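Private note to self, pasted from the team thread so I don't lose it. Backbone tokens:
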């Protein structure tokens, strides 16, 4: 009893006050609000000419990283920040399923789907291989390979819990993929007038080679509505393949754990079930049985992007400049080389 009482007294003899439930809840909400404010700043800056090319996600992550270096990690509101980083991330992936029209991909994009499989396999294997040659961080190289092959930051966010990637690796990977993808999409638009082939060919090329849906839309829109439609169809095939890829990764990691006599198994990614259900709901229910306007659809898409951005802010606060210098450069080089090679090859098979 005496020892228990002494444990409640700090070094200067003053009894420690246990935080009240209201105070704890307030700090939790404060952490969530903090990530949302930075995400909102990222969205606001992304509307400014010049910054709009970078995108809200990359801007918000940069702000979070800079804040960490100047002011340190806001420990008092850690619980809310961690909630945003973990729960918002999974919620965003579930909502991301609404962007995938499974019916259109299956009935109109089978040929594109075959090429999408090749793109994903190539991007992952080559990025990981180059990462090994460059002695890069293996986890970050794998994340960047998956992001390059599938659908950018959303894919990185989806597979991070499966491969048990560190929070800072996830944030660094998402930031890199957003920035590099933006550079590539702008380069595509500059090259558009100089390239041979039809608008449809250009659209397919954009859809099977660029990193994120936003990058595909940015690059393909100048070529016309037909090019944009076929580009998004090609890209949605890669999004669809995120699901089987995630389960393949889960099986592969669990098998390696068994072979290495490790007892830890990978937690089943239940949020992917939500992703599939939302994809089915968006493909077969919305529009067919529940009318939805373009304004509402765009609002849901914006909200999804905002939630994902807030989650990435939470992860970005774990990143230190030293980590960026020591961990990011070599994986960035590996991913950039892979992206260049991928763009060249896919141009001839589009």
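Design output:
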């Amino acid at each position: 009893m005496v020892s228990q009482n002494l444990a409640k007294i700090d070094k200067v003899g003053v009894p420690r006050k246990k935080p009240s439930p209201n105070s704890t809840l307030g700090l939790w909400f404060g952490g969530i609000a903090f990530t949302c404010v930075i995400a909102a700043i990222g969205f606001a800056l992304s509307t400014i000419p010049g910054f709009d090319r970078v995108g809200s996600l990359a801007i918000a992550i940069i702000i979070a990283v800079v804040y960490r270096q100047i002011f340190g990690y806001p420990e008092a509101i850690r619980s809310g920040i961690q909630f945003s980083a973990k729960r918002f991330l999974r919620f965003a992936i579930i909502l991301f399923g609404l962007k995938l029209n499974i019916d259109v991909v299956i009935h109109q994009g089978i040929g594109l789907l075959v090429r999408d499989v090749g793109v994903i396999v190539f991007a992952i294997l080559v990025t990981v291989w180059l990462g090994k040659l460059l002695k890069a961080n293996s986890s970050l190289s794998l994340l960047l390979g998956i992001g390059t092959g599938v659908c950018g930051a959303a894919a990185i966010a989806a597979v991070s819990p499966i491969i048990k990637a560190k929070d800072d690796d996830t944030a660094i990977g998402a930031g890199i993929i957003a920035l590099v993808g933006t550079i590539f999409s702008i380069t595509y638009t500059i090259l558009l007038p100089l390239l041979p082939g039809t608008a449809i060919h250009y659209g397919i090329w954009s859809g099977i080679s660029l990193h994120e849906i936003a990058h595909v839309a940015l690059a393909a829109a100048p070529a016309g509505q037909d090019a944009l439609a076929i580009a998004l169809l090609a890209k949605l095939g890669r999004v669809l393949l995120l699901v089987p890829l995630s389960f393949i990764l889960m099986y592969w990691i669990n098998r390696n754990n068994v072979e290495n006599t490790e007892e830890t198994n990978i937690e089943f990614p239940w949020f992917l079930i939500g992703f599939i259900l939302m994809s089915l709901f968006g493909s077969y229910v919305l529009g067919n049985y529940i009318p939805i306007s373009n304004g509402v659809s765009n609002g849901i898409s914006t909200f999804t992007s905002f939630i994902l951005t807030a989650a990435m802010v939470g992860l970005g606060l774990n990143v230190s400049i030293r980590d960026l210098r020591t961990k990011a450069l070599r994986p960035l080089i590996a991913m950039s080389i892979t992206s260049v090679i991928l763009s060249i090859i896919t141009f001839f098979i589009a």
